[in-house]
Amino acid sequence: MSDQPKSLFDKVWEKHIVEDESADRPAVLYIDLHLVHEVTSPQAFSAIEERGLKVRRPDRTFATLDHSTPTLPPNEKGERPYFTADAKNQVETLERNTKNHGVKLFGWGSENRGVVHVMGPEMGLTQPGMTVVCGDSHTSTHGAFGCIAFGIGTSEVGHVLATQCLAQRKPKTMRITVTGELQAGVSGKDVALTIINRLGFGGGTGYALEYCGPVIDALDMEGRMTVCNLSIEAGARCGMIAPDQKTIEWLRGRAYVPSDYEAAATEWLKLKSDDGAVFDDEITIDGSVIEPMATWGTTPDQGAPISQAVPVASNENEAKALKYMHFGGGDARGLAKVDVVFIGSCTNGRMADLRAAAEIMKGRHIAEGVRMLVVPGSEQVRAEAVAEGLDKIFTDAGAEWRLPGCSMCIAMNGDFVQPGQLAVSTSNRNFEGRQGPGARTVLASPATAAASAIAGHITDPRTYLQSA
Ligand SMILES: CC(C)[C@H](C(=O)O)[C@@H](O)C(=O)O
Ligand code: SF4
């Protein structure tokens, strides 16, 4: 058994089994890192308190504030402009819970606060070979470091708080190989939207994905995080990428990495699928033909290259999506006038994303009537962007530069798109009403979002990159 070739997923899974899975019982998995935010944790803390339990591993539990946090600064009295009493209550509850249970909170005032999936990696909390969970679907992001990382529900957040373990059935595995080389102007987001389009919404259900091939190797860590982030949008449990030298260099020097870094790095580099490892499913995508993508519908798989017209609906579901989006089948993508552009989120709110947008916006101005929000994914990203002068590029171009948080990705904090308005967004979900009641969302890369803000309609970023 032991010399059978194994996949990366199997290796990490097996190392964390506390109790094996049987026909009538899932496996019990040990969890290395538990990330917590204000939306899905209040009932979980209450549940353990009601039973008189403590947090089992406060040293392996880290919290941040992101979803309900206003992105505008406090007033002169120091009061934060919370959108609702609920939002304020969620934040205060997490402040209280983390204090009572000795859990580290990267809260207001911390220079490390950020969207949970931006914060974890940049603090070096996320490390290759770990099991990572959070009461949040986009926990798959951390898979970019060779982790088994997935979202859990609020009751499971309670289980992990109390036991540091989780009952889980082993998913099937699927390897996605992206061959060739990306064209200029094509990013990790375009790769992800292409993969989801190919798998279909729910096409990854029941699977752990492993991404590999020359295109994935060539992506920077930010691009890899974008790809893993979107795994859940194809229905997959998680997505992972084997660590390599880029992973090691990206994590080096971060706050929570092991003190004997070289020894850890040597172990991490062993984490990859063996030659001959068997997957339940395999797909190959030619990366050299991927183009800048934009969605036209109301699920992330309903996307197409910007160069192609909006497709004609081939079923009721597509017809409903086109109707909601006010798009006509056969329309050129560029016909749609853009009202709002949002750059940010755990998908595309990192330095590489802001740089890609700034490259297009430098010396240009957004089109009349467009409102643009640029929201760094974390305080660290904000500080680095300011040090590089990116904030100035954005504000000179007419965009608003905000404080870190989920912001318009989920529209819980007061940043939202008005009913009927069309938003080009670098986030990961374009569901009906996701960015506000009646809001119409087009998902795209930071470069595409920036180009669309400048042009005032959905635009292939290569238009500007070539004329730069
Ligand atoms: C609020 C939270 C539970 C939710 C999630 O789990 O994904 C959010 O982050 C999202 O992106 O929709
Ligand atoms: S940025 Fe968006 S997708 Fe990411 S955790 Fe926040 S709400 Fe969820």
TrEMBL record:
The keyword Iron-sulfur applies. Binds 1 [4Fe-4S] cluster per subunit. Keywords: 4Fe-4S, Amino-acid biosynthesis, Branched-chain amino acid biosynthesis, Iron, Iron-sulfur, Leucine biosynthesis, Lyase, Metal-binding. Its cofactor is [4Fe-4S] cluster. It catalyses: (2R,3S)-3-isopropylmalate = (2S)-2-isopropylmalate. It comes from the Bacteria. Residues 10-456 form the Aconitase/3-isopropylmalate dehydratase large subunit alpha/beta/alpha domain. [4Fe-4S] cluster binds at C346, C406, C409. CDD domains: IPMI. Pathway: Amino-acid biosynthesis; L-leucine biosynthesis; L-leucine from 3-methyl-2-oxobutanoate: step 2/4. Its EC number is 4.2.1.33. One of its GO terms (molecular function) is 3-isopropylmalate dehydratase activity. It is an enzyme of class 4 (lyase). Belongs to the aconitase/IPM isomerase family. LeuC type 1 subfamily. Catalyzes the isomerization between 2-isopropylmalate and 3-isopropylmalate, via the formation of 2-isopropylmaleate. Heterodimer of LeuC and LeuD. This is 3-isopropylmalate dehydratase large subunit. It comes from Asticcacaulis machinosus. The lineage of its organism: Bacteria, Pseudomonadati, Pseudomonadota, Alphaproteobacteria, Caulobacterales.
